[in-house]
Amino acid sequence: MAQLIDGRALARGLDEETRIGVAERLGRGHEAPGLAVVLVGEDPASEVYVAHKIRACARVGITSYEHRLPENTPQDALLTLIARLNIDPTVHGILVQVPLPRHIDAGVILGSIDPAKDVDGFHPVNVGRLSTGTGGLVPCTPLGVMKLLDTVIDDLTGLNAVVIGKSNIVGKPIAMLLLEREATVTVTHIETRGLPEIARQADIIVAAAGSPRLVKGFWVKEGAVLIDVGITRVPNGAGGEHLVGDIAFNEVQHAKAVTPVPGGVGPMTIACLLSNTLKAARNAEEAHHA
Ligand SMILES: Nc1nc2c(c(=O)[nH]1)N[C@@H](CN(C=O)c1ccc(C(=O)N[C@@H](CCC(=O)O)C(=O)O)cc1)CN2
Q: Where along the chain is NADP(+) bound (predicted)?
């Protein structure tokens, strides 16, 4: 029976560390870390995630500033808002929820955020720092994936890790983090030929293709560790819907450990956002005293 890696419990522990860090900061006479959350449009899933983020900020003592803009917001208006947030000293972190409406160039928007406030780690400066192993803010989902892996594997050196998915916000940064820890990393995607055979060589599979139940039981080697980043809403046959991951969960009980969906990577994404916001606030304080 595969061990279930409990992302909710791990996220609660990380939130507690963040809450203590925020309280210490306040005790030293500093203001609470501030996070600006920008949502453009009314994508239902994004609405849910943003609401979770704002509630989570309140739980740990981070001040959140919510900016909800209509779907037809011009790109320039969004750039103007970000320019204002970049120079606002009460704002230590800025996140722009993605996906953005189609008329907005996400690359331009994410590239306009001050890298020091880029708590999503999407700015090219932070991407470059991650790929050169020189610090910076690390994207929340990949950071959460590494923390989940650390609960079941002590040392990644030399292990075969197969990442399925090549997105800029998940697949590519996870590959960088695994490489940094000396794993042997193969980045694959939905078009990769012979994906089942490649996956079967893996000690670690990180499935982030956004393709429900893609990874079948026969793709998985006995004793592998499986991290499921996929979250897709599918009809449940009773008029409602439920969430499924990229891994055919019921077929992988011969794995060593697996993350559930929901309750695996998702809660860690939000916990890592809070911890990145505290980190950005601490960095700002250090820069001020330097
Ligand atoms: N600016 C960003 N946009 C997006 C990111 C991101 O990290 N930064 N990631 C995803 C969405 N996301 C956070 O924004 C996110 C996804 C899922 C969860 C989560 O807790 N999922 C729960 C299930 C909740 C549900 O859907 O009912 C779980 O897996 O248990 C949190 C955050 C894209 N956009």
A: 165-167, 190, 231
